Every structure is written in C-alpha cells, then in structure tokens.
C-alpha cells in the first residue's frame, strides 16, 4: 500500500509537469517497459480527470445558485429617440446581416451539393483543463502555469499560447504542456502547428496517446486529409479506451 501511494504521488507530479528531468526519463522508461505500471498511470489519470471535472461542475453549480440569489441590477431607461445617425447605423447593420446570411446560405448550399457533413464541428470539443481547473480568483494571484490554463479554459487562446510557449522554454517540454499547446493551435484554427505538435507527442508520449490520436485525426479531417484521419481513428479502435466508440462512429461516417 505504501509503495502504491508513492507511485500515485509520482504519477500526479508527472501529469502536472512537476517532475525533474531525471525522474521524468525514469518514469517514461518504466511506462514503456512495465505494462502494469502503464495501466496504473492510465487509471490515475482517469481518476484525476473525473474528480477535477466533477469538482469543477460542483463549483459552477454553486456559483450559479449564488448569482441567482443576488438582487438584479436596476437600470434607468431613457426615452428612445431615433435620429439620422441611428437610422444610418440601422441601415449599415441590416446590410451586414444580409451579407452574412448570404455567406451562410452559400456555405450551406455548397455542403449540400457535395453531400458532406461538417463532421469536425460535430465531434470537436476542446479537451478539458484537468491540470489546473479554473477557480474564481484574481489573475494577479495565479502562477504563470495556473494563468496559462486559466486562459486556455476561458478560451483566451492568444494569451494562453504566449504563456504555454514561455512555460515550454522555461520548464522543459513536458507531455501536458505540449498536449495543451497543440490543443491551443487547434482551437485557433492553426492545424499545421497542431498536427506538428500532436505528431511529436505520438513519438514521445505513451500517456496521452488516445487523446492525441483523436485530436490529430480531427485536425487531418478538417485539413482534408481523410486517409491520415482514418489511420489515426483506426489506431484508436484497436484497444479498449474512452475514445473507441466515438472513433468507430466517426469512421463509419467518413468512409461512406
């Protein structure tokens, strides 16, 4: 029991990028050679992910209850006046809406003609922040790492990208840092850099393998490389994991 507790503490440090370079190498060497240890790491990662996700949801629910109990803010309404400037503004807004609707209609028609659905948008959701889940706190009180994950979870991807690149340079190339960095590129629509970082992870990582293959497959799908997308999805289906059902479902659709 004592040894298992030590292992779990070490695994948690590894997942959070708080492990020394020497211990990281020993850890990853053991992951490659010890299937029982790899299974334990997967179990701990899943457990941490589940606990943090549940705790995050509980916190959000409590905050929502608190905010609902607050008195509504009263505002003073001025009498409405319509002038020439407002009329011009309304005309400009209407023209913009017409142009947007036209563009959307063109996209819809184009997709209906090709007979292809946007499977990327249907299946893509950013990977959750399980390393440093957002708590309601002042940004000034956060460490650089906490702030990077805060920007990631709040979808401030430009700020998140800047901090993750700094972390990568300052603390080394941890698995979790590169994984979330790739996810940031993906969320920003920079699929080339996302694919590059996910591919590097597949060569070095044994921890985020299925997650990496899933998001890499989606990147290839959105990039129009169906063969490469199918290859990643098929690799996911070879083992029992949380992405297997989704991968099989998506494969059946894109192969039609």
Task: Explain this structure.
This protein is mainly alpha-helical and 256 residues long. It has 3 domains: 1-72, no CATH class; 81-115; 121-256, Serine Threonine Protein Phosphatase 5, Tetratricopeptide repeat (Alpha Horseshoe). The protein has 12 helices and no strands. The protein has helices at 2-15, 21-33, 35-69, 84-114, 119-123, 144-153, 157-171, 175-187, 191-204, 209-222, 226-236, 244-254. Helix 6 packs antiparallel against helix 7 (157-171). It starts with a helix and ends with a helix. Mean pLDDT is 76; it is low at 70-82 and 104-116.
Characteristics of this structure?
256 residues; Serine Threonine Protein Phosphatase 5, Tetratricopeptide repeat; mainly alpha; single chain; 0% strand; 3 domains; 12 helices
Distance between the termini: 51 Å
The proportion of residues in beta strands is under 5%
Q: What proportion of the residues is helical, as a percent range?
A: over 70%
Which structural class fits the helix and strand makeup? mainly alpha
Q: What name is given to the CATH topology of the largest domain?
A: Serine Threonine Protein Phosphatase 5, Tetratricopeptide repeat
Write the topology of this structure.
Blueprint: H1 2-15, H2 21-33, H3 35-69, H4 84-114, H5 119-123, H6 144-153, H7 157-171, H8 175-187, H9 191-204, H10 209-222, H11 226-236, H12 244-254
Helix pairs in contact: 1-3, 2-3, 6-7, 7-8, 8-9, 9-10, 10-11, 11-12
